[in-house]
Amino acid sequence: MTQPAIRLLAALACLAAAATAAASTFDESYTRGTRTMDDGLNCNFVDHMFKDEQGFVWIATGGGGLARFDGYDVINYDINTTPGLKSNFVHRMCTDTHGRMWVASEGGIDVIDLAQNTNCRLAGNTDRIYAPMHSPAHLVMRDASGNIWFAGGQLLVCIGFDSDGSVGRTSITQAAAGQQFTTMAIIGGRTWVATEGRIFEARPDGTRIALTPTGIDVLPQLGTVIYNIYQKDNEIWIGTSRGLAPTASTATTANSTSTATPTRAPSRRIS
């Protein structure tokens, strides 16, 4: 065997050893396992997961309601529990800055007081949100200013709060005829929403929501649906029903995250 061939084999052996060591280190950093109906979940179909500020992992299921996992045990919330949900088909959830969990499901929006573990009755100017909160909702999130946004079909709602957590302002808009809101995201501290192949910046403007085109649209084929918008550094990644759309670069947006101070420790913090 020639010297170059020996050197090549030695280099490949070193690379293989390094890869094995890296994989071993990765494996040792995580605990593998599954959580199914045999382990306490009401349903095996998981639609979404969310980690709250206290370290609990919340699991949205399609038919089994909502589950909370503390690292050891699963607690389920559904239409028959207290606190209860409007539907067992849960799509998304998020927390607000007042210790409440917002849950979007086929039955509408439920709000859970996490400290009291009870359904929360919102105070303040709630007249305009009663009907939207009792209509099917598939998206909900908190923006960089602490507002709660939720969407269901053609309807998009933004709720602002007073300092005591009561509803202060509600802004509402509808998508164009034949369109539906399909996803929302925080991009550079701003709220972006998508309706099929178009992406807008959404901004509360009194009682309505102003939708301004971002110029980043995905319209190569009629019927393309945008399901995800994600920002990594100065790139915008767009996931659609026809694959990953070409990324868009932006030098003006910056990553924005919202944080809150934990109020109590969970049984086990999941990191």
Q: Regions with pLDDT < 50 over 5+ consecutive residues?
A: 252-271
Instruction: Count the E strands.
Output: 19
Distance between the termini: 50 Å
Strand content: 35-45%
Within the largest sheet, what's the order of strands?
A: 1-2-3-4
Please identify, by name, the CATH architecture.
7 Propeller
Instruction: Provide the gyration radius in Å.
Output: 22 Å
User: So what's the CATH class?
Assistant: Mainly Beta
Q: Structural class from helices and strands?
A: mainly beta
Helix content: 10-25%
Shape: globular
Total domain units: 1
* Largest sheet properties: 4 strands, antiparallel
Topology order in helix (H) and strand (E) letters: HEEEEEEEEHEEEEEEEEEEE
Average pLDDT confidence is 82
Which structural traits does this protein have?
Methylamine Dehydrogenase, Chain H; four-stranded antiparallel beta sheet; 19 strands; single chain; 271 residues; mainly beta; 11% helix; 41% strand; 2 helices; disordered C terminus
